[in-house]
Predict the 3D structure of the following.
Amino acid sequence: MTSSNETHRSGFACFVGRPNAGKSTLTNALVGSKVAITSSKPQTTRHAIRGIMNRPDAQLIIVDTPGLHRPRTLLGERLNDLVYETWSEVDVVGFCVPADEKIGPGDRYIAEELAKITQHTPVVGIVTKADRVGSERVAEQLLALQELMEFTDLVPVSVSGDYQMDVVSDLLVRQLPEGPQLYPGGEITDEPESTLIAELIREAALEGVRDELPHSLAVLIEEMVPREEREDILDVYAVIYVERESQKAIVIGKGGQRLKDVGTQARKHIQALLGSRIHLDLHVKVAKDWQRDPKQLRRLGF
Ligand SMILES: Nc1nc2c(ncn2[C@@H]2O[C@H](COP(=O)(O)OP(=O)(O)OP(=O)(O)O)[C@@H](O)[C@H]2O)c(=O)[nH]1
């Protein structure tokens, strides 16, 4: 490989792929710090959170998009718009397909949409979770992926197996234009803290409720203020919005125990993020059909 030490590249990348394809995990591993929210449950990443990978020869700003899906509600449409917008803005797209799941209609749908919108954006085909299967299956998956659309490169990778991470990084960097660092070295995300905090609360609130709620839950940070006379404590006031009374009961749990656990879990993660003590004031409110109401969507940050 030829590389000139004088050349510095910088630009934007995003990963696409069906829910659970390993996009957030790959982003976090490349960036080296947990900025996007990962979860074993699909579709937890809603906001475009940028993580920044810094190398001596390049700066890659990774935009984490929500999963693309056939829109059924206004929220679904907004999420998809966000995805298209992101695709047209980045320098390179990484299309992730897990090695241990057959390529299906979901992947084909993404490939079709991608082909429409990113005529001039290079797409790298990435087979994720390579550690979960044998090398033969990985090869098969690479071949199947190749059938979907035009890729600039194809590569298998495993984050947990620390396999080919450098190669993925190189293939993405290669597509960036020459240029200086766009963000100062230390910064890893330019999302406002309140967005990250809301995401952490949402993640905690989703834990353990399986498939019941994912799309019916939104979190709004109403206020974050240092406590009077105790500046080392930050008071965070947040509301978890659900669509129906029945969902409210699920989130709160018997005798309020579940909500208490959610609070404890979220507080732990928020304190780790901010590096300071917080008091979390959590409420659950019903906002009827918030996913279909433009006014409510705006208020909740969509
Ligand atoms: N064994 C193995 N598991 C992985 C690897 N990468 C990701 N996973 C797991 O796959 C699951 C999904 O990963 P995520 O990174 O959350 O997937 P995602 O594509 O961001 O999912 P959404 O946010 O729902 O779109 C998680 O349980 C990860 O721990 C890998 O390289 N090897």
Summary: The first helix runs from residue 23 to 31.
